[in-house]
């Protein structure tokens, strides 16, 4: 039987944890607080007059606190409407007022794209944010033999089909991760993201009706096509990139456990080159970031 002092200590610890957690901000605000706000990006705007627009936030929003406590200014603040060029605007009574952008909505123009087998929701959340920060142009989310079917029904993908669909406003869970990634990067141009439907079977693959869709209907014409796989090959990302003159590259990142051999064969039939990322078995998010990092370095070096 526990002694009175021990019971008192346990009770104190329980009360401390309970009361402390009640004063913590909700998860979204905790996440936002950890962001580096290198560019304030507004998901939407309202016309203010013939030349300016505005976006309002609650007083507790991280943008408001950042301007008042970190920047300590409310004039000439660097900001952008999502998908438009960066401008300077003012903060007036918790409302940002800025010149209305005149260009059309623009997606990222990066030469890198990704086919990604849908991972666990926390990993997908991390990857959407990170790939947005890295400036990836397009992300095609697909199923695979080893991916869990219930990942498609997660809160993160609920009611989501594509950022390119009519009426999409970036206010859902996917849009939130995109904006947070762009706020970190300081660039306002988002990636295109497409979630392949449950019954969207690859129309290019005949006689394989039992196999899920892989995004191969995205022909990626003119792309270097690379699929990392744990296999014995001397092919590396750098070798494939340096031996092809194609202006763009798409990586096919598999699920935990990797693509099956049959899946790899299907990708190879569509022109993908199998490469090795070394002897280490990487997690999905590690493989994706490694591929994108090498790709970014390659294309940056070509511009020098």
Automatic annotation (TrEMBL):
Q: Where is the Ribosomal RNA small subunit methyltransferase E methyltransferase domain?
A: 110-293
Q: Does the keyword DNA damage apply?
A: no
**Which SUPFAM superfamilies does the entry mention?**
alpha/beta knot
Cross-referenced InterPro entries = Alpha/beta_knot_MTases, RsmE, RsmE_MTase_dom, tRNA_m1G_MTases_N
Q: Which residues form the signal peptide?
A: 1-22
Instruction: Name its cellular compartments.
Output: Cytoplasm
Describe the reaction catalysed, as an equation.
uridine(1498) in 16S rRNA + S-adenosyl-L-methionine = N(3)-methyluridine(1498) in 16S rRNA + S-adenosyl-L-homocysteine + H(+)
Keyword Cytoplasm among record annotations: yes
> Record's Pfam families?
Methyltrans_RNA
Highest taxon of the lineage: Eukaryota
Question: What does the entry give for GO biological process?
Answer: rRNA base methylation
Assigned keywords, A-Z: Cytoplasm, Methyltransferase, rRNA processing, S-adenosyl-L-methionine, Signal, Transferase
For this protein, the Enzyme Commission number is 2.1.1.193
Could you name the Gene Ontology cellular component terms for this entry?
cytoplasm
* MF GO annotations: rRNA (uridine-N3-)-methyltransferase activity
Q: NCBIfam families per the record?
A: RsmE family RNA methyltransferase
What PANTHER family does its record include? 16S RRNA (URACIL(1498)-N(3))-METHYLTRANSFERASE, RIBOSOMAL RNA SMALL SUBUNIT METHYLTRANSFERASE E
**What family is reported?**
Belongs to the RNA methyltransferase RsmE family.
As for what it does, the entry says:
Specifically methylates the N3 position of the uracil ring of uridine 1498 (m3U1498) in 16S rRNA. Acts on the fully assembled 30S ribosomal subunit.
Q: What is this protein called?
A: 16S rRNA (uracil(1498)-N(3))-methyltransferase
């Amino acid at each position: 039987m526990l002694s009175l002092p021990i019971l008192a200590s346990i009770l104190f610890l329980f009360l401390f944890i309970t009361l402390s957690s009640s004063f913590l901000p909700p998860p979204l605000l905790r996440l936002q607080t950890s962001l580096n706000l290198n560019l304030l990006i507004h998901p939407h705007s309202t016309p203010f007059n013939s030349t300016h627009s505005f976006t309002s936030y609650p007083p507790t929003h991280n943008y408001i606190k950042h301007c008042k406590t970190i920047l300590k200014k409310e004039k000439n603040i660097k900001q952008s409407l999502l998908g438009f060029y960066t401008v300077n605007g003012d903060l007036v009574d918790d409302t940002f007022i800025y010149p209305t952008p005149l260009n059309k909505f623009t997606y990222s123009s990066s030469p890198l794209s990704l086919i990604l087998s849908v991972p666990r929701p926390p990993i997908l959340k991390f990857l959407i944010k990170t790939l947005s920060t890295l400036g990836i142009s397009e992300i095609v989310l697909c199923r695979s033999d080893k991916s869990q079917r219930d990942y498609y029904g997660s809160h993160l993908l609920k009611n989501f089909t594509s950022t390119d669909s009519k009426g999409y406003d970036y206010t859902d869970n996917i849009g939130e991760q995109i904006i947070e990634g762009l706020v970190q990067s300081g660039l306002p141009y988002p990636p295109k993201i497409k979630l392949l439907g449950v019954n969207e079977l690859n129309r290019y693959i005949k006689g394989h009706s039992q196999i899920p869709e892989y995004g191969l209907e995205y022909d990626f014409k003119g792309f270097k096509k690379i699929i990392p796989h744990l296999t014995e090959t001397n092919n590396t990302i750098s070798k494939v990139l340096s031996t092809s003159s194609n202006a763009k590259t798409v990586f096919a990142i598999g699920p935990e456990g990797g693509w099956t051999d049959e899946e790899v064969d299907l990708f190879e039939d569509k022109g993908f080159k199998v490469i090795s990322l070394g002897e280490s078995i990487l997690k999905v998010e590690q493989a994706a970031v490694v591929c994108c990092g090498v790709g970014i370095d390659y294309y940056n070096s070509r511009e020098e």
